[in-house]
Amino acid sequence: MEMYEQLSLIEDETVRDRELSNILEAVLFSFGRAVEVSELAKACDCDPGTVRKQLGRLMQRYEAEDRGLCIKELCGKYRMCTKSRYYPNLLNVLKIERKPVLTEVVMETLAIIAFKNPVTKAEIERIRGVKSDHAVNRLIEYGLVEETGRLNAPGRPALFAPTDEFYRRFDVSGKDGLPVPGPEIQAEIDEEVRAELKSFDEDTQKAETDGTEVGV
């Protein structure tokens, strides 16, 4: 949308619209995390549809005025963020040590979790062919990955998925916003999934026979 169109939308706001935008801005700023639409609707005492409409207008205003802050949609939730180009300035003031660069091993593990989420550690290790405890723990430490539940299978292995922080840092709105793999890579992924399912079925059958548990 052109700049003048964005400004025109802002000018068309009613007093009530501006008040709702102010409330949303205050809540997003105060929470410091991604906020559910239902939470925002409760804060504004209005319906979710109205909240989404006002969030759209507020996001347009931020973009039109080219502020240092922006509002991002992350997996259906909304969060107020600092624009990435100002990170170095924040680090200069706060004197915070820069986080270590993600190694190739950690990035590989993160990619698997991002594209296949939710995924167990055993599945990650089957794809990578090596133990992945260290990489997964590092990603959890960095706040990029979290445990989201347990697989309903013998052993109840933990399931891992990307966090809102992952989507914020990589500027992706959600799983659907991830790059689409090419035909060759997709074929490899499909083959890996089939191999994993076959292996898991074999492990499950063996566990039932031996009376042991399958999991991580």
Shape: elongated
Measured as a percent range, the helix fraction is 55-70%
Strand arrangement, major sheet: 3-5-4
CATH architecture of the largest domain: Orthogonal Bundle
Please report the total strand number as a whole number: 5
Q: H/E series, N to C?
A: HHHHEEHHEHHEEHH
CATH class of the largest domain: Mainly Alpha
- The secondary structure category is mainly alpha
The CATH superfamily label of the largest domain reads Winged helix-like DNA-binding domain superfamily/Winged helix DNA-binding domain
Strand content: 5-15%
Give structural notes.
The chain is mainly α. The chain has 10 helices and 5 strands, in the order H-H-H-H-E-E-H-H-E-H-H-E-E-H-H. The chain has helices at residues 3-11, 15-31, 37-44, 48-65, 87-94, 104-116, 121-128, 133-141, 164-169, 183-210; strands spanning 69-74, 77-82, 119-120, 145-150, 158-162. The strands form 2 sheets. It has a 3-stranded antiparallel β-sheet. It has a two-stranded antiparallel ribbon with strand order 1-2. It is elongated.
List keywords for this structure.
two-stranded antiparallel ribbon; 10 helices; disordered N terminus; Arc Repressor Mutant, subunit A; mainly alpha; 57% helix; 2 domains; three-stranded antiparallel β-sheet; 216 residues
Structural topology:
Blueprint: H1 3-11, H2 15-31, H3 37-44, H4 48-65, E1 69-74, E2 77-82, H5 87-94, H6 104-116, E3 119-120, H7 121-128, H8 133-141, E4 145-150, E5 158-162, H9 164-169, H10 183-210
Antiparallel strand pairs: 1-2, 3-5, 4-5
